[in-house]
Amino acid sequence: MSNYDLDRIKAKEQSAFQRKQEAWAVYDAAKTRASEAHDVMMSAWLERCEARNEMNQEYQAIKTANDHYREVWDNYCKVRDYTNSLIEPLRAKADLEHQRMKVCFDQASSEYELGDKVNAAALSREGHEHKKRRNELNAEISKLCHKIKVAKEEAKLEAPKTDGSVYRAAKAKFEEKKSIHTKAEAEFKRLKDERDILKDKFISAENEYNYLKKKNLQNEASEAEARNSKKCKVKTPSDVRKWPFKLVQFSSRKTS
């Protein structure tokens, strides 16, 4: 192989080495970006988990409050409905006594005007008896109504209307953290894919460089072997043909 060919292959090797280094630099920067994005994603995930736990706690709190609220007000409704069932017939009786009272008073007034004072007095007494029973019934009804009112006030104190603002705020915070984490996760995935692509490019450039480097080493070994072969080769002297003649002359001189 000529020196020109060797220099050309070495130049390719050097160019491949430069491409490998550049690919490594780009890949290393992509690794750093992906690692930083991963840290951001994990931090967002932790904040998301914390916000979710806070939201769940508030949900459990408001659920417990709602369960207690329903229990208390269910009990109140039972008291109200039962008491109302007692009030309704009493009110009907009170209305009846009131109507009878009016009839008696009206008749007593008519009898008095007609001059029958005895009958008028009897009707008047009967009217007052109906009035008394009416008032007693109304008093009993008032007590029962007061009982319902007291039960309602006690229910308000024991189980006030639940405030869902804290839970709604916690839920809004969770949704915000969830959105941030989702975006961070998408960004990490994008940078991870970019990193993997650049890694493949670096590996390809490294393989090309290693191939050319190995090829150069093989060529240099071949050249070295060729040079060593030339050094070890024996050259024939120009007067080698004269040696037998001289030996023959020396031998004939000795025998004579």
CATH architecture: Orthogonal Bundle
Strand runs, count: 0
Largest sheet: none
Task: Report the portion of residues in β strands.
Answer: under 5%
Q: Which spans have pLDDT < 50 for at least 5 consecutive residues?
A: 239-256
Separation, N- and C-terminal Cα atoms = 61 Å
On the 0-100 scale, what is the average pLDDT?
Answer: 86
Radius of gyration: 58 Å
**Total number of helical segments?**
4
Explain the layout of strands and helices.
Elements: H1 3-114, H2 117-158, H3 165-232, H4 243-255
Output the keywords.
256 residues; mainly alpha; 0% strand; 92% helix; single chain; rod-shaped; disordered C terminus; 4 helices
Explain how this protein is built.
- The chain is mainly alpha-helical.
- It has a single domain, classed as Helix Hairpins.
- Helices cover 92% and strands 0% of the residues.
- The protein contains four helices and no strands.
- The longest helix is centred in the first third of the chain and has 112 residues, at 3-114.
- The two termini are 61 Å apart.
- The model is unreliable at 239-256 (pLDDT under 50).
